[in-house]
User: Fold this.
Amino acid sequence: MNDGNYDASIFYLSSELGQLWPCRVYFDCKNGITTPMTCPNGTIFEEQSGKCKTGKGSFSVECQIYCDATKTDMQECSYPDMFSEETMSCENFTKVECGSRREVFDYCQTRIVPGRCSRCSNPCIDQYPSCDGLEDGFQAWPSKPTEYWIICYKKRLLEKGTCKEDNIWKSRKMPYNGTCTSVLAIPGESLPSCAGRPNGNYDTSQFFPTGPWLCKAYYSCKDGVTTAHVCPNGTVFDGKSGECKMGSYAFSAMCQLFCSSLEWSEGYDFSEGMKECEYPQLFSTESGTCENFTDVTCGTRHEEKEGCNYLKQKYIFRRGLCQDTYPSCKNKSDGINENPIRRPAPYFIICLQDRLIGGGVCEFDSFWGVRTFPFNNTCVQAYAIPKAEYSLGRLPSCNGTTGSYRYDDSPCDVYYRCDSGTATAVKCPENYNLNTVSGNCELNYPCN
Assistant:
């Protein structure tokens, strides 16, 4: 080795002197004799001049390492910056000429590695992957789940992160073609097949009968190839025309759903651009608005009759109890019916064409002096409801008899008449009571 002054990296690996080489230590070589030397306080050794100096200076081994006379220890630029000998400061690595100094490409090869994970099997590489051998640009994070991504440039890691859920497609995203893309739009993932379909544009329900149902996205089929599309801002997909348009349009899956680019004060906003009429309304293609279901022709759209199957109710009552608020009218006659959830009781529901359109409570009948209950599509006082047909009814069976009879535990002015085996409830006029012998109502007849 020629006579001269040399920094410590010439003689020792960093592991032999700790994590980093000292900035004030150097070695004087003269006539084959090596003498360790130390720069005065407030100075560092600069190998280029072979002298101690104030200020900052590069270090001969690695391009991101530098010395600062105001600091006790060796310093390191933040990854992926490098130390510039021109500006004597840390600069973007693309602006620095390292010369003979080694360039560190991987974050995990830097000398000061923050954020180590003591619980990870490979603490640094699990958090800061290497870009060695990878192309420049946005791409999947090797060895991580599919939603993780990294950005590489010239073998360096510039950025890392995870793809968020897609607000348009309502699905998870993963790196594809230089960006985070919905799995519903990626070949080999969940992109549906156009096999057997004519060329054209289709809403998502044509491929996914149970969802996701979307208004801002659609698929095009051309010669068997499927392509995913997103409508421009301010528009929604109209399945009838196969175009993205402004306005409100029917959705093919269900008759109460529609796609709209407009602000709506009525109905329920299910997802971006998709809205739902309030139960039991349906969306009319003629008026372009929600209408009474009796005024709407659904055509091929599914006509939902159960309130609990509307998407709004499915969300609100996602933990159950929907039937308490929206009892089913399936297979029930039009008009007043007993509430199937709150029976036996005076509560009723009103049905029309298998839909719930109302409900309430049967009132107390002051004339008969007894509660009324839902029976035969109306509210009927208990004395007129056959016991055999309703548990709260009080009208006995005649069993083929004829005559007038008192009810058990009833007022004396109330009785039932049997004619040819048919029972009918009867109420005497005011101040009259039933004479059980004659079978007639008599004025002021004693009540026993």
